[in-house]
Structures are given as structure tokens and as C-alpha cells.
Amino acid sequence: MNGKLSEKAEEILEKLWIEVEEEGNFFMDMEKIPLTPDDPVFHELTDWALIEMKDGQVSLRPEGKEEGLKVVRRFRLAERLMMDVFNIRGEAAREKACQLEHLLNEGVDTKVCTLLNHPSTCPHGKPIPPGQCCLEARMSGNLGVVPLTELKANEEGEIAYIQTEDNKKMQKLMAMGVLPGNRIRLTQTFPSYIFIVGFSEFAIDTNMAREIFVRR
Ligand SMILES: [Zn+2]
Ligand SMILES: [Zn+2]
Fold this sequence. Notes:
With 216 residues, the protein is of the alpha+beta class. The chain folds into 3 domains: 7-66, Arc Repressor Mutant, subunit A; 79-139, no CATH class; 145-215, Roll (SH3 type barrels), CATH 2.30.30. It has 8 helices and 9 strands. A 6-stranded antiparallel sheet has the order 4-9-5-6-7-8. Strand 6 and strand 7 (193-197) form a beta hairpin. The site of one zinc ion (ZN) has 6 residues, from helix 3.
């Protein structure tokens, strides 16, 4: 579509997209969004043919799905930017990401995505819908930072960052020497992940392995 949606319209698309694509529901109650038929945003979304209303329930039209995916992508990239680059976490990070997401259009999202090495998940582990830049980077094998779970047995990398909101886990990993800049070598991927950092070997489960990001 041509033209720019209002911030409120983008936020509604974001909510609807998550409801439809991730929660597996086809409709959402207007009250739950919340949205009313006399709201200018409602007209904005229906004029662009992004949403459809039936019996007080709203669904996404194919154009709305396409647009919603881009909004979700921008929001989750903004979340990553807050955490990975600015080291802002928690509620403050969410608020700032909510404001920033609206600025990441017209190719800015591609620049941010490239800067962050095409991350596949947000700080909460939700998938970031890949853009063209991610597909190209994946095809050329040019993916900089990946979760430890993407490494093969006996592959080695440098720890880029740890992504967890659980302080205990963070401390446990730090005590193992899992710190940015340290080398890590994966020795086994099943049934648990075994790796070597320094001169010590450790075993962790998949969930924890997903939270360690490594530069290949
Ligand atoms: Zn998130
Ligand atoms: Zn990308």
C-alpha cells in the first residue's frame, strides 16, 4: 500500500496480526481491541481495505495481514535495538520500542535489521518476521549472530550476548564464563547442549542454549 498509516492504526494491525497469526484466532472482538465503528481509525483501516467487520468482530484482510506483519517486525526489531544496542530492558524498553516502531519504515527497518545481524527473535523469544534482508543474508550464509542452538557440534564462535530476563539464569551462565567476547565451542547438541568455555565443559538444556547468542 502507498501512504502511511496513523500510529493508532498500526497498533491495531499489530494486535490483530498477533491474534490471527500467533494465537490462531480468525476474529477479534471490537471491544477487546478496543475499536468502535465511529472511530476515525476504523475508517482509516477499512478505507485501506486492511480489516473487515462482521457482527462486532474484526478480521484481517490479506492486505491487512501483509501490513500487520511489517508492523510486528518493526516493533520486535525496535525491542531488540533497545536491548542489544542501548541495553534498555523491561517496561522502559517496551515503551520506547512502542514509540520507535513507527519510525522504522521506508527502509530504516532494513538498516536496523542489518545492524543487529538479522535477529530471528525478539527479547521475549517471539519470532521476528524475516524481511528480504534476512532472507538474502541467510542465503549467502552471511548470518552474523545466531543462537547457540544454530551451531553444529564442534562448531566454535564468540559469545555476542545473553538474552534472558531471568537473573538467576544470567548469573548461572556468567558463572560458567558465558560472557560476551569469550570463545565457546559446542561439543554436543543432543540430548542436551554441551559446550566448552575456557577449559571447562558445561551441559545446558535447549531453552538456555537459545538464550546465548554467538558470532560465528
Ligand atoms: Zn517482544
Ligand atoms: Zn534482516
